[in-house]
Amino acid sequence: MTGPKARIRREAARLWAAKGYHATGVQELADATGLGKGALYHHIGSKEQLLFEISVEGVAVLIAGAEEVLAMPIPAAERLRLLSRRLMRNISDDLAEWKVFFHEVNTLTGANRRTVLELRERYEGQWCRLLDEGARSGELRPADRIAVKGILGMHNYSYLWLREGGRLDPEELADVFVDLLLGGLALDLPIDR
Amino acid sequence: MTGPKARIRREAARLWAAKGYHATGVQELADATGLGKGALYHHIGSKEQLLFEISVEGVAVLIAGAEEVLAMPIPAAERLRLLSRRLMRNISDDLAEWKVFFHEVNTLTGANRRTVLELRERYEGQWCRLLDEGARSGELRPADRIAVKGILGMHNYSYLWLREGGRLDPEELADVFVDLLLGGLALDLPIDR
Fold this sequence. Notes:
Chain A is mainly alpha-helical. In chain A, 71% of the residues lie in helices and 0% in strands. Chain A folds into two domains: 1-45, Arc Repressor Mutant, subunit A; 46-183, Orthogonal Bundle (Tetracycline Repressor, domain 2), CATH 1.10.357.10.
């Protein structure tokens, strides 16, 4: 997405990530984008609408990517790796947007909030679906829904520690996570436990 | 910790978790605690000092608990389980405090910020130490520092989805995570990979 709306979203995410949504006035956003307050409102409708669009866009991209990965005719473990890599790449590329998302999603009200939470559910459901398929085909151990929340948390929490120019790129970080998740830490457990 | 300071911290965490640190005035906190603004400042020093104390207390409790667990003469996998259970119990009991911590830690300035980040490093270091010990003793696979960040993220991210009265108590959630982390998801990997 390009044009003034994309630029407004990017500036809003940057400002809100730095100062918080509530503490940032629309005037600051007008200044940052070089638009007058009137022109800004013309583009965004309202501050909450802008927060809503930033939130929806992030999750929608993840869902579309996951749908592609899930449909690939490759082993479940490989699809898990691709899901993980795409998520880490997405968080890393849109760090400000994700920080805003995680911090402000409950600021959204009514139908906006419900829509975004349903999209999050749908994305989590895609991970569940992959793990269920892997379990049914005998490739993976069955995983509780809580395990899926843990796996997503492992990825999502990186919004707090990811830094530009880190030692590993997002795909390499994903590989560390997936190797850990697939292989496990224990060396002395019976295989059939 | 009890007394007015504990009550002020609890109220501040509750208010800041709900509305954000920047968006909550000291007057609101004075109202919520039933203290006058003067008495409130007498107890807290400043708003940042209060944020600092809430942040330090949370991590300090985790560090002390982890030190106990690390010293126990039991297998690394069992100590990992205890670390995990204590962390999930702590996050669950102090959900508002942890939300404030994760969202506002970078609001802290100067020496306050450095102190809190050093304490977080120290806590992360305790998890690294346990995993290193387990790897040296042949109990666990060696884990990258990034894997430790992932393991902590798996736990910490729960501040966004934990709900009172959930299906599983914090210790049971921890057990799901630890079983996943120890055993791994893959059923078809060679053991000695």
